[in-house]
Batch of 2 targets.
Target 1
Amino acid sequence: MEAEIIAVGTEITLGQIVNSNARFLADQLRRLGIESHWQVTVDDDPARISEAIHNAWLRNQLLFVCGGLGPTDDDRTLQSTADALGVDLAVDEDQWQAIQADFKRRQAKMVPENKRQAYFLNGGMPLANPVGLAVGSFWQGKDHTVVVLPGPPREFKAMVSESLLPKLKNLMGKPIISRNLHFVGCPESELMDRIQAVLPDKRVVATSYVQPDEIQVRLTVHNETTTNADELLNTAQEKILQAVGDYYFGTGEEVSLAKQVVDCLKKKHLHISAAESLTGGLFQATICSVPGASNVFDGGLVTYAIKVKESLLGVPKEVIDQQGVVSAATAEAMASHVQKLLHADIGVGFTGVAGPDSLEGHPAGTVWIGIAFPDHVESFELHLSGKLGRQNIRRQSVQRALLRIYHGLK
Amino acid sequence: MEAEIIAVGTEITLGQIVNSNARFLADQLRRLGIESHWQVTVDDDPARISEAIHNAWLRNQLLFVCGGLGPTDDDRTLQSTADALGVDLAVDEDQWQAIQADFKRRQAKMVPENKRQAYFLNGGMPLANPVGLAVGSFWQGKDHTVVVLPGPPREFKAMVSESLLPKLKNLMGKPIISRNLHFVGCPESELMDRIQAVLPDKRVVATSYVQPDEIQVRLTVHNETTTNADELLNTAQEKILQAVGDYYFGTGEEVSLAKQVVDCLKKKHLHISAAESLTGGLFQATICSVPGASNVFDGGLVTYAIKVKESLLGVPKEVIDQQGVVSAATAEAMASHVQKLLHADIGVGFTGVAGPDSLEGHPAGTVWIGIAFPDHVESFELHLSGKLGRQNIRRQSVQRALLRIYHGLK
């Protein structure tokens, strides 16, 4: 069974937004073992929507039509799809009640068009929308399955994950079980080489996805019972962590390193603080991006200039003069001093060169990170590529500090 | 003349990467006034590449085929396009010399396939690649123009901007002159309503693009001499700034509000500092994202907990007790105290509710920003929608503070 993804939206053909839905869906299909060789985007024009569906119908069996399910005049997708299939529209009465209740609660005025968001392809099933008003459609004909999905990425992802994937898994008739491992601080090629070298069983397939702040490795098992699959995945994960556990920080779908660290600190009733130079506040902002950060973080310092490292933080002038501002001694002093100053259990110090210019003869990407744990102080140096650019050097520095803290607390 | 954008790449149909080239090119075409209603993506399969070109040929006159120009076996785009058009391939001898010189310089081993990167569609022209080895093709037939472009986004953008756009402008036979205005802090619909209401001349067209941290408004004039166009744009900009100048922070292609503020501070020899609560360091990290920030920023504080606002920053306990932590008085005290503590010319204080939970009875999105200028202290309140989520509330707060500082310095 081969799939084709049709996106409908003038905002895409005009180049205002990128078609992120197609990437998300294609990735999900690949994980299910469904091949997809065509993606087509047209604007909100009924004739072009019909032409796209007609072409797709001739060459593929599983069609996804995405976007254009809103209540306004330029939302023509569902009617155009129904016309192309030669079917009527039906009303999802439950959703129609829910839409009316939502408008009542918001004291908003309804127009007749709002009912259109409860329509789906007659003869098919409505797909529930966990975060929006428009339902989707799941329609099966003799040789074809046609799925209609909403355009806003948040609604799209929620409907695909919660309403569509279970149906597609049934359609495929074979179970696929997978888990997602998260890593930071190792180049992707090296990480995957080392993982492939220790994978104990060919039934477990590992694929990697580079994200801005991490590398995700997905382990997948096809066509096994749940018990067998779990056993295979457990063994694989164990071998992988023996090989590259130094870079690992969690397993699951919604895992972030900052959240792992905050959760870990919270569980151990520890508070953290930081004194940041090249990162300029990014470490603390990352900690504060986690809801509930106030349980583990009271505040800290940004000490960008040398004189502020001395005056506000109290790093001895002679340490900086003798060892240099980009040094283990300065990073450790920053960590220890901010730990004391904020009465924190853990203090972190960042000093280094974000670039583009070099500093004290160190090229951009040279970073020292000091960490004052309750019982000892340590530091390590990063030699990041200057080509990463200023922002990525700062983000990588933050992630590497978080990883070290996470492992230090375990 | 209508365009169709065909992307070739298994990495897109597998969902490994998003098709950012299509968005970039569609946006450029729109600016030139070229309509584009179709985008098609296929994997690296010659038969599907041919089918995509065949379909596009029947419905559009300007075809872009993007990706798959590398030297490896799965790079089939150019040969497939040549087959579909019924033409041969020619060698760009200059590029072939350049490729050989590049390999020699890198002391890398050449294989016969490397010569393929110097091929282009016979009867057309090669398109120079400013940052890579593979040339593109610009081929014109009786009713059709076919353009072949490389896949890596860096090479794609460079070739489109530097080699393709001048040719397309000639093809269009009419000059298009535009400028880009940047705004923050006004809802897009209100901003555009107010701009449309004052646009003095129908020959100036305004279109808006919402970016994560700003709204860009592009003014475009077609078919006028440069002098006329400049005059029209100057008048339009003047009227627009009279109407919505409060939200404006710059004109140009590469403008960021943080950079505008840093440049402005640098010119006036002023230093800035901040004490941040809900933003958790994000304001300072944003300032530090601008190269050369050290000229205007020495450091500052993150005062997340109330006790740190009092102990480290010296905000009087009675201010917080009597006025509340989310208040004008607290924001102004934070700004003034950090200004003094860091010997800065300008101090900024952020206090508010990032969410998801409310604080002191204030819902998520309630933010007070205090700014201590050299000669006065001021503050203002934001009522952002809680639906924006924690990160966007924090980012918006930072942008709104930067905007106020920018206008305060003007």
Target 2
Amino acid sequence: MREIFEAELQQIGDDLAEMSRLVESAISRAGTALLTADLQLAQSVIAADHAIDQLERELDERCVLLLAQQQPVATDLRVVVSALRMSSTLERMGDLARHIAQVARGRYPHRAIAPAAEATFAGMHEAATGVAQRTTTLLTTRDLAVASTIEREDDTLDLLHQDTFAALLNETWDGTAQQTIDVTLVARYYERFGDHGVSIARRVVYLVTGDFAEERGVTTP
Amino acid sequence: MREIFEAELQQIGDDLAEMSRLVESAISRAGTALLTADLQLAQSVIAADHAIDQLERELDERCVLLLAQQQPVATDLRVVVSALRMSSTLERMGDLARHIAQVARGRYPHRAIAPAAEATFAGMHEAATGVAQRTTTLLTTRDLAVASTIEREDDTLDLLHQDTFAALLNETWDGTAQQTIDVTLVARYYERFGDHGVSIARRVVYLVTGDFAEERGVTTP
């Protein structure tokens, strides 16, 4: 019985890591598509999102079956419940990558991001890709040092998010209304993406150490 | 054993309804604060959000305990897992109401919403309040007719969301960059609020009928 349970748990861990790899690829390609106005790349991100959604459904079904058949308690139970939450978070991260790709596609053949904000979004692209890569590493290795790196990358995203507002409100900003909308929304997508990465990092820390720092502002706007 | 389980399940249902009532109050007051630049009302929404977060944590803890102690299977198990998901959705709806209140507070003593977009946001306020009220009704009564009403209110929110883009991109739009940002973000908050209401509606329909229409675009941007 225990062996079956361990194997099932391993499979759930592998599925989470696989979802995270797909999210990593999606956010990286979405950011490049956005910065370079690459239509094909944007479309590939949009087309690939269903695979993440599908993986979430399978993983959830597997978790519910595991709860029903193995009736885990204590730590085992928390691992399964956390997996349910993390799969939903990863699915949402995939959606945010898709939203960024949709903005890139919507403005093609132009670049969505006005030149004045390009450097900021290059920074967000780098930080968000870092969050995604480290999320995969954390889910694979459970190395808690990686969790703090995710928190720092998220801090970077928050600062860059503030920078976008500063740029938009500066009197030198001469973007069109469409450019103002795009900067506002895409910066928000990146900022949320970072929050979700932090949410996963804290869940893994909780599972490993029993200390959950949910109160520390994961859900701030 | 079964009696204890039923009582626990009833308590979880009551907690979800209570969370929904708090969300209903939050979104209604946030919208009024936004449209009338009412600082005190905005602050009351922001201050009250922690009660929703607290209720979510208690509810989650109760669900995990129930899974551990009662080891439900089949439908009972799905009810508990759905409650975990719905509490997280309601918590997020509370956050969105708080974000709207934060925009109202940030622009005080001015109104955040430019006059040209006021009518649209009055409509979003009404539709979102409708979604929240009906979510409470649905969670209390399990009356599936209410679920379709939530879907229709969400369709209204989506249309009004599109209207805000049309207004911002119209050549007659003469709002400041701050007003463009606020219209863009608050419209997005309302649109997401509606999506979350639909997500709860579909979960309740699934629990009652066994038919889950997750694929029908809940997570579209």
